[in-house]
Amino acid sequence: ASKTGGKMRCTWFNDEFDRKLEQSQKVERALRRAVAGNELQVLYQPLVDATTSEIVAVEALLRWAQDGVAVDPSAFIAVAEETGLINAIGSWVLRQACTDALAWDGLKLSVNVSPAQLRNADFPIQLGHILEETGFPPDRLELEITETYLVGDPVIVCRSLEMIRSFGVGVALDDFGTGYASIGFLRKFRFEKLKIDRSLIVEAADDEGSRAMMVSSIAVARAMNMFVTAEGVETAAQAALARTAGCDHLQGWLYYKAVTADEITRQLAKNAIRITGDHRHGHVAH
Ligand code: C2E
Ligand code: MG
Ligand code: MG
Ligand code: MG
């Protein structure tokens, strides 16, 4: 249908639609320039052991400073997904993170991958290349996927998770407790790690129902031999609750914000960050 024809049928809808499209095309053009002009950066947020507070891992978080102003990742990643730019950006993040983290002996590295990346048939090939080129040990790498990916065809999902694991790379289910992901998903897909979303951590502090859900989800995940991380821990009370509920790792501003690779390296060199192995204290399979 022609644009004019559409406008005649429903003017308001099309104006609104055009405005959104224009905005997203503007972001897309700027994002293309950002990729070409090295405006993207990967920061790293440490995850600490719930018992010792020592750093055990880092999560790679993408940053884009447009003319010096930070753009919210959730917003520009959505545009990158819609436009397919996420494939180029995603493999850049993975390569950069594996290169940076190579020197951080003993620390695990988590990298977020979007559903659009996983659905790309070339993803396994890219992952293989990056591991080979960087020499990053696959067993130190973990990919964080979101539940929105899991609601797709379970056969395809299982196949791509198997593919990731065939490299020796782990899979974490990110943002658990925000939407549709159920306990059934944990059984079906057998993740190496479950990450409890910040919203559930916050709500659990003063809502009994949320607390029950958090505590029981963590218990189930642990019984299935998964590691559990509490995300977005900002207060000592939240940390205590997460620890009591059985979280292995804590991540949040109470401990560390995301910092540059140089900052991680600097702290490691100063030995301000003490590295521990990937042990699972008192965590036995039932
Ligand atoms: P996420 O994977 O759940 O990452 C955790 C988010 O929580 C990060 O937001 C982090 O900065 C924030 N956070 C950590 N601790 C705290 C805290 O104590 N309080 C609060 N309020 N927030 C905390 P960020 O960096 O804005 O990233 C947002 C989302 O964008 C990520 O959520 C992830 O889904 C996505 N993302 C980030 N980097 C990448 C990437 O390289 N690739 C893909 N596909 N997605 C990415
Ligand atoms: Mg994540
Ligand atoms: Mg998360
Ligand atoms: Mg989250």
UniProtKB/TrEMBL annotation:
Q: Where is the EAL domain?
A: 24-272
The name on file for this protein is EAL domain-containing protein
Instruction: State the organism named in the record.
Output: Croceibacterium soli
User: Source taxonomy lineage?
Assistant: Bacteria, Pseudomonadati, Pseudomonadota, Alphaproteobacteria, Sphingomonadales
Of the intact sequence, the residues represented are 146 to 431 of 432
